[in-house]
Amino acid sequence: MSFSADVKEELSEQFGHKQHCLIAEAGAIFAACGQIMVSDDSFTAVMQTENEAVARKYYNLLKKALGIRPAAGLENTPGKKRKGTYVLTLMGEDCRRVLEAFYMVDKNGQVCVRDGVCQGMIFQRPCCKRAFLRGAFLASGSISNPEKAYHYELVCQTKERADQLKELMIEFDIDAGMVKRKKNFVLYVKEGSQLVDLLNVMEAHGALMELENVRIIREISGTVNRKVNCETANINKTVSAAVQQINDIILLRDKVGFDNLPEGLAEIAEVRLAKPEASLKELGDSLDPPVGKSGVNHRLRKIKEIANGLREDEEEKQ
User: How many Å separate Cα 127 from the centre of its chain?
Assistant: First the structure.
């Protein structure tokens, strides 16, 4: 299974101990995947999903919270290899009780949910807000394999629903972005630490530990790569400088001769030619008496100035 499917499977087996949390989670699932049909004074509520874990969770939430068991069925779609769509249906008094518990039908029998936005009464407590976000993810969310990318998203059919869920996330210090994709509005989170916080809010602790392990490995790998790249860059810089120094020294040897150079410059020139891979410190230690890095660097700069002067003279003659 994918990481996203693993998270949903973990969440499908988790149930709160309080009725209001169970109702909040079931309400979030229904708001994303459900439909209310009104005929005279009767209601029918249908929840449809292709995810077996979501269908199972919704069924068990209603059973545990209200003692109600929706009629469950599986509808196959002709020509598709998928298992089909799970359909959970509520009718009559059971339907009314559930919709009233979701605050989707008022006491006058009027449907009071619009644009997928649930009444705030369903998630007044922090624990209910966690449950509501958990239900929303189960119904219409996904999360990428953290080994490849940090990416969580929640698909909403209306901007109003997306705004409501975004505000709930902000209460847990999670700042989700929003983008319109075709007819839907998608909330997304792409920062590793925010994903950890989000899994913690939904109480997907197994997935959270897996994500943390991946983050640690990726951070260690990133640190090692940065150090290797830095060291490689330093080596390349040192090698490039040494090559240029040797070119300057050879030019002076051939055009001027070491005997015509000041003693200090001639000495460092001979040592550099003898030790092309040595660092400045190693070059300085090879001199008698030893010279510090700054002294070696000063002599090499003087050699470069003389070599550049010779090159300019050659160019003028041409």
Answer: 25
- Sequence-distant (6+) residues with CB within 8 A of 205 are 199
In order of their start, the domains of the chain are 3-203 (3.10.28.10), 237-317 (no CATH)
In whole angstroms, give the CA distance from residue 69 to residue 60. Answer: 8
Longest dimension (CA), the chain: 112
Other Cβ atoms within 10 Å of 18 Cβ, number: 13
Predicted confidence (pLDDT) per residue in 50-103, tens digit: 999 999 999 999 999 999 999 999 887 665 566 789 999 999 889 999 999 998
Q: What's the CA dihedral at 145, 147, 150, 156 to 10 degrees?
A: -10
CA angle 186–190–193, rounded 5-degree value = 130
What contacts 24+ positions apart, CB below 8 Å, involve 295-300?
A: 296/268, 299/264, 299/265, 299/268, 300/245, 300/268, 300/272
Contact between residue 168 and residue 129 where contact means Cβ atoms under 8 Å apart:
yes
For the chain, state the CA radius of gyration: 35
Task: Collapse the DSSP code of 154 into the 3-class scheme (helix H, G, I; strand E, B; otherwise coil) and give the result.
Answer: strand
Residue 22 — very low, low, confident or very high, per pLDDT cuts 50/70/90? Answer: very high
Q: Name the pTM for this structure.
A: 0.69
Q: Looking at the predicted structure, is the pLDDT value of residue 217 above 90? A: no
Mean pLDDT across 293-300:
88
